[in-house]
């Protein structure tokens, strides 16, 4: 089956450019939990270029061949029950009596004891995941400990040498070789790596914070997935300085017809001048096949003429009412809009036959819709200036996006520099065009004869091409200015292609950026007394971005979200359970294990008491201790202890259906980050499986 046919459905979602971006991306998975492998599965199936699975070498499957019983105490495995993970075999029966963890082994699934050499979790998961799609190249790496891994060196090696072809662990070398050979036997060569996406699966802060810091330093996007009992969340750490979204694809996109702009662009004026006044047309067929754009423009001329007659062309302050701020006067007040609609109705002779007039009445709002850029786009433009762009563009090149071996502070990825170049060109274009962005150049379907529809279509297409050429010239001017001021330094950014400029122009009304704080900065605020967090206090990375502005908004945003609790049971509000999960992390930081590891009731109650204390401290650190819902359902000791006992009861358990839901959401957000299309969730998606509800919060 041809690749184009296999990916036909998803090409309708993100197009050929999105599929190319997906195929040129390496997804690095840290940890082989069920949530992590479910996330990776949903990226392997649509054809991500390559994957690298990294896990530690503490594999409980090896214990089946051990000469001595496993050591007492908590399991060294990060994930106590491999049976919840379809991409890892369940542990073999223990030679010391009973199945490990009392897991019922499915006879249809291979166990570790069925292989001659026990594979590492990373090798096993990689081999099974790549079986799903032969187009994907799989790599795996086993390290002695994820907590002791030097992630900065790992990313530097990826940038310099690409992903490793075998495991670094001698005990898993045979499995690594077989995995590599199976990848090459599929006939798929390793794709070029243009982007790296990191996914952390169910890792404690001792792993997560060093990983977060390394990703921040390298400007790599990081997705944190977590499945804990009946709860889970997906946290996005955007690369520095932000994640740009050109093709945001809003659910409701208004046609870009520029009917309110005065004077209209040349092509539209030509179409209008060649159109006969519909009031003078006798032929019903001719009238009923005039595009609604022509109907609206002729109605607008009548409305303007009526306003000139009524007001005599002069407003109360002596200014003209026909031209305001360089635009043709269009209906603004409710009365004026109703008056305009009445004119369209009066122009209609037989609504049952003149469908185009019905369409004109339905689309009348396009006459007073301002085509200028929105405040959201203005915020994006304000984040880019030529001085910062020049400083970033003169830094050293990166072979892999975000992967430089020596730098001071995070280096801006090349695709962000291209975005900034186009934004600077757009700012110059807006100055020369009264804040109107480039025309999209497409028109919606409408009732019309072929000749007039094609003429209208060509008018918009030609004007859009003129605007594209103008943006291209502006980009060349900005680039030439940067080259002149760079004193001979080679720039890291060149001219975008015609297709890139055309895509940017078409979507310039809906530009977005995603900007988040790194996790180590978030944790430092929420639990400053944590011994793990304290170790990062003196090792901050330069280029801290816009984090102060983000923090000033986070508390206000959270207070607003607390005003919208769960509709039937406010205690099931996802944010409350996220605080409980953060309290479990705080417990881990202090004890080296999660709460609920002991079977005695007194020990479990003691864990619950400590978790509740962590919840109270975190709420205070976040400044939410005056929120009504927090006071009523979390700071109230009886209700707060109920939540603490519930998360203690989970004992870090992974439930596959929860992991599948969280993994599905995480993979969806990963595709958004990879393709640069659609707007990712802003910060954190929290899933509450107790009540089957979810929420998105900025932490």
Automatic annotation (TrEMBL):
UniProt superkingdom: Eukaryota
InterPro entries per record: ThiF/MoeB/HesA (IPR045886), ThiF_NAD_FAD-bd (IPR000594), Ubiquitin-activating_enz (IPR035985)
Positions of the THIF-type NAD/FAD binding fold domain: 7-57
Species the sequence originates in: Cyclostephanos tholiformis
Biased amino acid composition, Pro residues: 68-79
Biased composition (Low complexity): 110-119, 166-186
Region named Disordered: 59-119, 162-190, 307-327
Protein name: THIF-type NAD/FAD binding fold domain-containing protein
PROSITE patterns, alphabetized: PROKAR_LIPOPROTEIN
């Amino acid at each position: 089956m041809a690749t184009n046919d296999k990916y036909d459905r998803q090409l309708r979602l993100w197009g050929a450019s999105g599929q190319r971006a997906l195929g040129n991306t390496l997804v690095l998975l840290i940890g082989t939990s069920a949530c992590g492998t479910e996330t990776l599965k949903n990226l392997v199936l649509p054809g991500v270029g390559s994957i690298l699975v990294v896990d530690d070498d503490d594999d409980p499957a090896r214990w089946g061949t051990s000469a001595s019983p496993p050591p007492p105490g908590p399991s060294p495995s990060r994930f106590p029950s491999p049976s919840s993970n379809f991409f890892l075999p369940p542990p073999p029966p223990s030679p010391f009596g009973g199945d490990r963890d009392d897991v019922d082994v499915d006879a249809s699934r291979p166990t570790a004891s069925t292989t001659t050499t026990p594979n590492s979790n990373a090798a096993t998961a990689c081999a099974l995941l790549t079986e799903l799609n032969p187009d994907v190249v799989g790599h795996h790496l086993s390290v002695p400990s994820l907590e002791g891994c030097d992630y900065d060196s790992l990313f530097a090696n990826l940038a310099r040498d690409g992903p490793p072809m075998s495991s670094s662990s001698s005990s898993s070398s045979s499995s690594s070789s077989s995995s590599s050979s199976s990848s090459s036997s599929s006939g798929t060569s390793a794709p070029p790596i243009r982007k790296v996406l990191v996914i952390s699966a169910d890792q404690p802060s001792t792993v997560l914070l060093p990983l977060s810091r390394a990703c921040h330093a390298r400007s790599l996007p990081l997705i944190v997935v977590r499945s804990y009992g009946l709860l889970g969340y997906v946290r996005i750490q955007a690369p520095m300085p932000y994640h740009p979204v050109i093709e945001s694809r809003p659910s409701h996109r208004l046609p870009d017809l520029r009917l309110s702009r005065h004077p209209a662009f040349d092509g539209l004026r030509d179409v209008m001048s060649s159109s006969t006044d519909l009031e003078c047309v006798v032929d019903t067929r001719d009238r009923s096949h005039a595009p609604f754009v022509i109907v609206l423009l002729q109605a607008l001329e009548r409305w303007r003429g009526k306003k000139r007659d009524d007001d005599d062309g002069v407003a109360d302050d002596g200014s003209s009412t026909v031209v305001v701020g360089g635009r043709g006067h269009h209906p603004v007040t409710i009365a004026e809009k109703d008056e305009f609609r009445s004119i369209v109705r009066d122009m209609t002779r037989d609504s049952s036959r003149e469908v185009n007039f019905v369409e004109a009445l339905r689309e009348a709002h396009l006459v007073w819709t301002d085509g200028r850029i929105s405040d959201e786009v203005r915020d994006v433009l304000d984040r880019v200036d030529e001085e910062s762009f020049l400083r970033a563009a003169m830094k050293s090149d990166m072979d892999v996006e975000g992967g430089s071996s020596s730098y001071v502070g995070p280096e801006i990825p090349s695709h962000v520099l291209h975005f900034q170049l186009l934004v600077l060109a757009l700012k110059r274009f807006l100055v020369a065009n009264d804040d109107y962005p480039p025309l999209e150049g497409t028109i919606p379907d409408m009732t019309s004869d072929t000749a007039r529809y094609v003429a209208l279509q060509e008018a918009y297409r030609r004007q859009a091409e003129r605007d594209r050429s103008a943006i291209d010239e502006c980009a060349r001017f900005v680039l030439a200015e940067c080259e002149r001021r760079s004193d001979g330094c080679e720039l890291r950014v060149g001219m975008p292609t015609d297709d890139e400029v055309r895509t940017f122009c078409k979507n310039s009304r809906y530009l977005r950026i995603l900007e988040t704080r790194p996790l180590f900065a978030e944790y430092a605020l929420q639990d400053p007394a944590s011994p793990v967090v304290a170790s990062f206090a003196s090792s901050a990375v330069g280029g801290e971005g816009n984090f102060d502005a983000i923090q000033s908004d986070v508390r206000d945003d959270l207070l607003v979200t607390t005003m919208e609790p769960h509709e039937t049971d406010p205690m099931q509000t996802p944010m409350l359970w996220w605080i409980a999960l953060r309290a479990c992390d705080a417990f881990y930081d202090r004890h080296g294990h999660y709460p609920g590891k002991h079977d005695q009731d007194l020990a479990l109650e003691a864990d619950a008491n400590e978790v509740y204390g962590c919840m109270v401290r975190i709420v205070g650190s976040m400044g939410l201790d005056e929120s009504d819902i927090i006071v009523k359902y979390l700071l109230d000791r009886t209700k707060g202890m109920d939540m603490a006992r519930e998360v203690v009861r989970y004992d870090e358990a992974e439930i596959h259906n929860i992991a599948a839901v969280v993994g599905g959401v995480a993979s969806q957000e990963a595709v958004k980050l990879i393709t640069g299309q659609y707007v990712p969730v802003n910060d954190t998606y929290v899933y509450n499986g107790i009540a089957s509800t979810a929420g998105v919060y900025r932490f």
